[in-house]
Amino acid sequence: MGNITSHAADKALMGENTNGLTLLENKLVPVYATSTGEKVVYGTELHETLNVKSKFADWVKNRLNDCDALENEDFETFSKNLENGGRIKEYVILLDIAKEMAMLERNNIGKQVRRYFIEVDKRYKENIMPKDFPSALRAYADEVERRQIAEQEKEKLQQELDYSKDWLSIKRVAKMNGVDWKIFNWRKLKSVGLEMGYEVRKIFDANYGEVNTYHKDVWEACYPEYEI
């Protein structure tokens, strides 16, 4: 990877061009180019978009290890100042590795982010200047369509993120709290939910298939002692 300094990376985060990183795309996850033309992402920005519950430091180390990623080949690190005065170890990760990390989340958000990365990679590999005006018009129309699709994907992802924060399945809450899912009574959740005006909603979960979900207000009313 190209040499990336902390100063250059901090400027790139603000959307500025530097000798280190240049912002290429700023859709689901910002994608940057290094001085040698490699496409990369920031680990913190990937972590935030994927809506990962675990702490960034733990998650990024585990995922990079899952991908057999090598420091200074597949990713680089630097220390970054935070607005609250603290510091964090930031990761600059090659796009190919970021694709694997998104895929390993094994959920719809991870799939959408991976597809977005593939589209970005493809678009910049095919960045060829049209030779005539009709070709230029077609290329422009294709680009407009791609951007519209990207915006729709972004809106859909945001809706899923908002939904996932408010509606939770029994197995998801059990996993969050490290307990057996059988301790939660679905009949109780359904009954209290109807009293509160919340019907049961079904969603497709990549891990469990189609599952029932209950609003967080219902969970807090039925099981206030657990983390929701």
Q: Helix and strand string, N-terminal first?
A: HEEEHHEEHHHEHHEEH
- The number of domains is 2
Uncertain spans, ≥5 residues at pLDDT below 50?
3-19
Helix content: 40-55%
Radius of gyration from CA coordinates: 21 Å
Helix and strand composition category = alpha+beta
Distance between the termini: 41 Å
Summarize the biggest pleated sheet: 5 strands, antiparallel
- Please count the beta strands (DSSP E, at least 2 residues each): 8
How many helices? The count is 9
What's the pLDDT, averaged over the residues?
Answer: 81
Backbone shape: globular
Beta content comes to 15-25%
| Strand order in space, largest sheet | 1-2-3-5-4
Describe the structure.
The protein has 228 residues and is α+β, with helices and mostly antiparallel strands. The chain folds into 2 domains: 6-127, no CATH class; 167-222. It contains 9 helices and 8 strands. The chain has helices at 6-13, 43-49, 56-66, 95-103, 108-125, 133-166, 170-177, 186-196, 216-222; strands spanning 21-26, 30-34, 39-42, 75-81, 87-94, 167-169, 201-205, 209-215. Strands 1-2-3-5-4 form a 5-stranded antiparallel β-sheet, with helices on both faces. Helix 8 crosses helix 9 (216-222). The protein starts with 5 loop residues before the first helix and ends in a 6-residue tail after the last helix. Residues 3-19 have low confidence and may be disordered.
